[in-house]
């Protein structure tokens, strides 16, 4: 189930966190609830992705991207992600989600979501690639154009080694996904029948 209650909280409180400036981190605090856990009694892998959505939405709201997108017929869209888990988040434990826009190249934005335990240790990191799609012109916007439209005067830094490797891996997997022929027979999707 999606994190609708938490999404509502983020949407209703984003102004209290102030404007988001590129290069900063968004911080949202959570507690691991019974609806978040798997059979190991810790935050399940799908919930990490949903909470990272909230980190991005917080940034989009605070930066003014969502209101700008509505006016211009744009939409922020995920391209892909990579996650790594190094410590578990147990049931009832509090944790923070630190989200940031790390850098960008052409039409790709590289984001990072870091899940931090109460003792300051990192539990997980999710790296994302995303873009802003222009529905009217049927293309992804150059990120520099989006940044300019937001009124920010910021230059992207060069991607570091892990970010370059992530973008290369993402590009390769995307090409693989596009290389598969369409599946026309639904029987092929479930192993030939039920």
In short:
InterPro entries: HotDog_dom_sf (IPR029069), THEM6_lcsJ_thioesterase (IPR051490). This protein is of the alpha+beta class and 194 residues long.
**Spans where pLDDT lies below 50 across 5 or more residues:** none
Count of individual beta strands: 6
Question: What is the share of helical residues?
Answer: 25-40%
SS-based class = alpha+beta
Major sheet details: 6 strands, antiparallel
How many helices?
Answer: 5
Q: Write down the secondary-structure element order.
A: HEHHEEEEEHH
Mean of residue pLDDT values: 93
Give the CATH class: Alpha Beta
CATH homologous superfamily placement: Hotdog Thioesterase
Second CATH tier, the architecture: Roll
- Rg from Cα: 18 Å
Q: What is the distance, rounded to the nearest whole angstrom, between the alpha carbons of the first and last residues?
A: 26 Å
If you consult CATH, what is the topology?
A: Thiol Ester Dehydrase, Chain A
What are the SSEs and their pairings?
Blueprint: H1 4-13, E1 25-31, H2 45-63, H3 65-72, E2 74-85, E3 94-105, E4 108-117, E5 122-134, E6 139-140, H4 143-149, H5 161-179
Antiparallel strand pairs: 1-3, 2-5, 3-4, 4-5, 5-6
Helix pairs in contact: 1-2
InterPro entries: HotDog_dom_sf, THEM6_lcsJ_thioesterase
Pfam families: 4HBT_2
Protein name: Thioesterase
């Amino acid at each position: 189930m999606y994190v609708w209650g938490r999404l509502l909280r983020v949407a209703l409180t984003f102004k209290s966190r102030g404007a988001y400036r590129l290069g900063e981190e968004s911080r949202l605090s959570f507690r691991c609830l019974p609806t978040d856990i798997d059979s190991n009694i810790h935050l399940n892998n799908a919930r990490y992705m949903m909470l990272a959505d909230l980190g991005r939405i917080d940034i989009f709201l605070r930066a003014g991207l969502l209101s700008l997108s509505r006016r211009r017929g744009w939409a922020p869209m995920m391209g892909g992600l990579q996650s790594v888990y190094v410590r578990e988040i147990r049931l009832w434990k509090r944790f923070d989600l630190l989200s940031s826009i790390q850098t960008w190249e052409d039409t790709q934005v590289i984001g990072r979501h870091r899940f931090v335990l109460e003792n300051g240790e990192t539990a997980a990191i999710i790296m994302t690639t995303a873009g802003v799609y222009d529905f009217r012109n049927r293309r992804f916007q150059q990120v520099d154009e989006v940044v300019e439209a937001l009124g920010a005067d910021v230059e992207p830094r060069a991607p570091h080694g892990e970010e370059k490797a992530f973008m290369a891996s993402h590009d390769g997997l995307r090409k693989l996904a596009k290389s598969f022929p369409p599946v026309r027979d639904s029987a092929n999707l479930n192993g030939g029948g039920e």
